[in-house]
Amino acid sequence: MMNPAPAIHFDDLCVDFEGGRLFDHLNFSVSAGKCTCVLGPSGCGKSTLLRLVSGNPDISYTGSITFTPQRHRIGWMSQSDLLLPWMCLRDNVMLGARLRGQVDEDRRRRASLLLERAGLAAYEKALPATLSGGMRQRGALLRTLMEDCELLLMDEPFSALDALTRLKLQDLATEMTAGRTVLLVTHDPMEALRMGHEILVFTGVPAHIKRISELPGDIPRRPMSAEMAPYYEDLLNTLMNEGP
Amino acid sequence: MKIHRIVILAAGGVLLWQLVVIATGAPAYILPGPLPVALAMVNHWPELWHHLQTTLLEILAGLAIGTLLGTTCALVMALSPLLKRWLLPVLVVSQAIPVFALAPVLVLWLGYGMASKVAMAVLIIFFPVASSFYHGMRRTDSELLELGRIMGATRRSLFYYIIIPSALPAFGSGLRVATAVAPIGAVVGEWVGSSSGLGFYMLHANARMQIDRMFAALTLLAVASLLLYFVIDTILAKTLYWENQKDLIHEKAL
């Protein structure tokens, strides 16, 4: 049973990284039940932000990160699929339950249903090494969704895929994560315009944040449309002019 | 490895051996040809079989105990950073002392029986197994560990489902090396002091100028060591099934 998706509030957030200040008294929030894309050049702290939200104990910070409501579960998806090569696809999808000792018939059935929905039913028993990059990343998405998480943290999950597979997976992810709070880190303005209800642009070190929240239409959008062109221009200008 | 390849390699080895005998003109008491050695093996098979059994038992016992101790040591070091700080230097020092130099001491302490030879084999096997398994566990992808933490894994389940399987290919490499060097420990132990085993038989035959028998024992030891390696390699290939796919990709890429 899922709890309501949480909103995240960052208050007076300061983070030092490798001798320098990465975030300097940042104040912003992430809306509940929406997909917020975090866009920015390499090294501006996008991935660090996700790790902070995930509760990584190795990153120290001052200020506060609060969730409303507080009770939530986190799902994580990164650029590499992180499928365990010794487990078949279905077991990989059920990894969370296995790690917590909660594998039961109901979960097995759910994993099979999810695989079927993602067009991977025929590959349930296949080892990851025998699957294409797109299939593996779909498997990683399903593993994240199996967690019944209200908050999804995605760190450039589609950047290693070819253009067509990326588009298909963006559509699938948008459909399957509806209603959850999604924090999606990307370096691709097109991806941000396609998938984000809101976009946070990180620029400079320490990071400045520009929020774009009035994006038109439902997701997934068509970022190449005339309607989106000004937003694309605006994003590019922000990134090009204020890079680190 | 396919049978036909083994047969061709063995035939090539025997042919090369015979060519060296002919080319050098070495007398039979220095380098006997393959035929006299084969005859010696047939004629003295019961003796050779008896000694082979002893050596094999020493190697297998050494391999089993060495692997068990090596994996236990690696697990303890991976589980406890405090114990690791104490055990790691001991592990390195254990290899700094040449194991062969310890052979007379081990025979003195453990006697002329099987125990001293097994101990020699254990000392040789322990390090590659412990070192490869421990470093395999340490090299577990940090992103996988992070994923496990986020998914609410316990320390135990993290080890069982992620860290140990991640380290198994490295452990397999260590075990392959250990299997290849295990016979050295057993035979050196037999040379220093024993009353049975192929090492003892070779020394005995050499002292009596029965060079064909010595070479028969040496050939038998080589064949037994190769067979043992292939058995372990096959078991590992079946157990680490996910690595086979990677091997195929590597073969194609190179």
Structural features, described:
The complex is a heterodimer of chains A (244) and B (254). With 244 residues, chain A is α/β, with parallel strands linked by helices. Chain A has two domains: 30-60 and 148-244, Rossmann fold; 83-147, no CATH class. Helices cover 32% and strands 25% of the residues of chain A. Chain A is built from eight helices and nine strands. In chain A, the strands form two sheets. Chain A has a six-stranded mixed sheet with strand order 5-6-7-3-8-9, sandwiched between helices. A three-stranded antiparallel sheet of chain A has the order 2-1-4, with no helix packed on it. The longest helix of chain A is centred in the last third of the chain and has 14 residues, at 163-176. Chain A is globular. The mean pLDDT of chain A is 89. Chain B is globular and about 70 Å long. Helix content of chain B is 86%, strand content 0%. Classes of the chains: A alpha/beta (244), B mainly alpha (254). The interface between A and B is medium-sized, with 23 and 22 residues.
What's the quick description here?
Chain A has 244 residues and is α/β, with parallel strands linked by helices. Helices cover 32% and strands 25% of the residues of chain A. In chain A, the strands form two sheets. Chain A has a six-stranded mixed sheet, with helices on both faces. Chain A has a three-stranded antiparallel sheet with strand order 2-1-4, with no helix packed on it.
CATH level-4 homologous superfamily of the largest domain in chain A: P-loop containing nucleotide triphosphate hydrolases
- How far the N terminus sits from the C terminus of chain B, by CA atoms, comes to 19 Å
Please list the strands of the largest sheet of chain A in the order they lie side by side: 5-6-7-3-8-9
Per the principal axes of the C-alpha atoms, what is the gross shape of chain A? globular
Major β-sheet profile of chain A: 6 strands, mixed
The rough form of chain B would be described as globular
The number of helical runs of chain B is 11
**CATH-derived topology of chain B:** MetI-like fold
The CATH homology group name of chain B: MetI-like
What structural class results from the helix and strand content of chain A?
alpha/beta
Uncertain segments of chain B: none
Please bin the fraction of helical residues of chain B.
over 70%
The overall average pLDDT of chain A, rounded, is 89
